[in-house]
Amino acid sequence: MPEHRRVVVIGAGQAGLAMSRHLVDRGIDHVVLERDTVAHEWRDSRWDNFTLVTPNWQCVLPGYRYEGPDPDGFMPRDEVYRWVRGYAGTFDPPVREHTEVTAVTPAADGFDVETATGPVHCDQVVVAVGGYHVPTVPRFAERLPATVTQLHSAQYRSAAALPPGAVLVVGTGQSGAQIAEDLHLAGRRVHLAAGDAPRVARFYRGRDCVAWLQDMGHYDIPVQEQPGGLARRENTNHYVTGRDGGRDIDLRRFALEGMSLYGRMADFHSGRAHFAPTLERSLDAADAVADGIKDSIDAYIARSGIDAPVEQRYVPVWRPEREITEIDLAACDITTVLWSVGFRTDYRWLRASVFDGAGHPCHHRGVTAVPGLYFLGLPWLHTWGSGRFAAIARDAGHLADRIAVLARETAAA
C-alpha cells in the first residue's frame, strides 16, 4: 500500500518551505518532496555575481525575515542561498530531498503521487516548483557552427568560464541585461540583441523606486486589476540591478562604452546573425516605462505632501546612428552566444485538466478547478510579489487556509 499523507508539497524552494511552515503551524500532516536539495536553485541556477534586484527588507517568509546589517542592500547569490537554507532550519520542515515526483494523478479520494522512491497517496497537493522549467532557444540556433559555444542564461556562471573572444547576448530581460553588464564589467567584448523588456530606475527622488511603489500600494494590487489583467503574467520583468549597492542598467551607456547593440535577433544563416530594426524603438519604449513609473511616484509625492528632493529626468545619452541588421560572427570574433530568451513550463507529470492551451496553469490565487490542487510561487499568482519573497508568505497563508478548510471537510465526511 502506498504511504498516505494529508498534503504533499512539491518543491523545497522558498515557496514550498513557506507552505510547509503554515501547515506546521496549523498541525496539518504533510511532506515536502524535493528532487534535489533545499533551495538548490539559488545555488545552481544563478551566475557568480548574481544579486537580488529587490531590497533585502522585502525578503520575508512566514515567521522569518531578513535581519542582516544591510536592509536596503541586495543579497548576492550565496547569501540568498544561506538565508533560505537558514529558514528551513528554524522549523524543521518534513522535506525529503532527492525525491523526484514523476507523476501526479487525481484519484477518487485525493491524488496518487509517483516518486522515484515509491508512491504516495494524499488528500491535497501544492505545486511549488516555480514557473521557469525548461530553458528555451530559437530553432535557428541549430544553424550556428559547432565552433561557437552556446549557453542559456541559466547555465552562465562567469565571464572567465567562457572561451576567449566576444560574446553575443540575446535578450534584455532581467537576466540578459545583468549578464551583459557582468561581461562588460569583466572587460569582455559584448554584442547585445535587445528585446522588448522595460526598465526601471533603481533610485528616484532620494529612495529606491521599490520603496516608493511599496508605499503606494502598487505591490498589493491583484493581477486582475492590473492593466491587461491576467495577461500581465506573461510580461517581461523590468531590468535593473542590485549589484554594488544597486544602480540603473542603461543600455545606452553601455553603447557609449563600447558595447554593440542591435534589435531583436531574428535569424541566423550562412555565418551571419540577422536582427530586426527594432533597437531604437526598444530603447525608447524602455525609457518611457521608466519615466511612467517616475510620473506615478511624482503624483504620489504631490498628493501626499511628502518633502522629497527634486530630481532631473533622464536624458538619453546615446542613440543609434543607424540600425545594424546583420553581422558576421566570425568577423566579429564572437565565440559564445548566450541565450536569455526565457523558459517554458513543463507540467507533463501533472495529469490534471488545469492548463490552458499554452500549458500554463489556470487558477485563481493559486486555487485550481480540481479540488485540493494548488499552485504557489508563480509570477503574478496573485500580485507582483507572488513570484518573489515579497508576497510568498501571504500567498502561502491564503492557500493554507483553503487547505485547512478542505481537510476539516474531508475528516468530517
From TrEMBL:
It comes from the Bacteria. InterPro entries: Auxin_biosynth/cation_transpt (IPR050982), CHP04046_FMN-dependent (IPR024000), FAD/NAD-bd_sf (IPR036188). Keywords: Oxidoreductase. SUPFAM superfamilies: FAD/NAD(P)-binding domain (SSF51905). One of its GO terms (molecular function) is monooxygenase activity. This is MSMEG_0569 family flavin-dependent oxidoreductase.
